């Protein structure tokens, strides 16, 4: 049976978080080309998944959808009550400068935290859920925690995860937790998944 609107995009009705070593975390993503209600509904479902896990960012590959989009829900200022939900589609970085180190975690790597070196200052150019192009300048050392979040999520769109940035010594420190996740995945699926070589 054909769809009444042939060009409508198709997204899972009940997206679910995937954890390391699920292979979706390593798949390259496709640009979003159709900005329709199906896309916007999917984004709302992603917010529900992220809120259930108390996350600040979630990328489509983390719900096994290989599309270039992620969402964030960040506090506007440190300690602020109010937060701001945002959808970032087909994002790219410009005017990158300097580095900044920040301790990161990831909903797809529960219980693992490590310091990662990121860019300090950059512009992110992206489209919102209606396809409107937007640009935001971020400066991590000036207090833009969002600058760390968007770099972490952008990595997911390239099939990269924060563990890829760690030194061998840092990986050694989280080895046991990675192995536990690998065992859990193998028990649930019967396959090894996309295991990080170390
Ligand atoms: Zn992540």
Topology (SSEs and partners):
Blueprint: H1 37-52, E1 57-59, E2 69-75, E3 83-105, E4 113-127, E5 133-139, H2 146-157, H3 168-189
Bound molecules: zinc ion.
Zinc ion is lined by residues 106, 108, 152, 156.
Structure description:
The chain has 198 residues and is α+β, with helices and mostly antiparallel strands. It has a single domain, classed as Alpha-Beta Complex (Peptide Deformylase), CATH 3.90.45.10. It contains three helices and five strands, in the order H-E-E-E-E-E-H-H. Strands 1-2-3-4-5 form a five-stranded antiparallel beta sheet, sandwiched between helices. The termini are far apart. The relative contact order is 0.18. The model has no long low-confidence stretch (mean pLDDT 93). The structure holds zinc ion. The site of zinc ion (ZN) has 4 residues, from helix 2.
- Percentage of β-strand residues: 25-35%
Return the CATH class.
Alpha Beta
- Helix percentage: 25-40%
Low-pLDDT parts are none
Mean pLDDT: 93
Could you tell me the radius of gyration in angstroms? 17 Å
Distance between the termini: 47 Å
Order of helices and strands: HEEEEEHH
Write out the CATH superfamily name: Peptide deformylase
Order of strands side by side in the largest beta sheet? 1-2-3-4-5
Number of strands: 5
How does CATH name the architecture? Alpha-Beta Complex
Question: What can be said about this structure in brief?
Answer:
Helices cover 25% and strands 28% of the residues. The protein has 198 residues and is of the alpha+beta class. Strands 1-2-3-4-5 form a 5-stranded antiparallel β-sheet, with helices on both faces.
């Amino acid at each position: 049976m054909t769809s009444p609107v042939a060009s409508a995009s198709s997204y899972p009705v009940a997206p679910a978080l995937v954890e390391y070593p699920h292979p979706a975390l390593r798949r390259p993503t496709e640009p979003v080309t159709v900005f329709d209600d199906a896309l916007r509904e999917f984004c709302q479902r992603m917010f529900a998944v992220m809120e259930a896990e108390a996350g600040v960012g979630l990328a489509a590959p983390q719900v096994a959808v290989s599309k270039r989009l992620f969402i964030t829900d960040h506090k506007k200022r440190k300690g602020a009550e109010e937060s701001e939900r945002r959808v970032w589609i087909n994002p790219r970085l410009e005017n990158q400068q300097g580095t900044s180190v920040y301790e990161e975690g990831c909903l797809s790597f529960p219980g693992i935290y490590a310091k990662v070196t990121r860019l300090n200052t950059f512009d992110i150019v992206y489209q919102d859920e209606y396809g409107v192009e937007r640009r935001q300048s971020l400066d991590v050392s000036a207090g833009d925690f969002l600058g760390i979040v968007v770099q972490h999520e952008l990595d997911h769109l390239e099939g990269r995860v924060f563990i890829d940035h760690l030194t061998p010594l840092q990986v050694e420190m989280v080895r046991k937790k990675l192995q536990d996740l690998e065992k859990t995945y193998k028990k649930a699926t019967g396959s090894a998944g996309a295991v990080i070589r170390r």
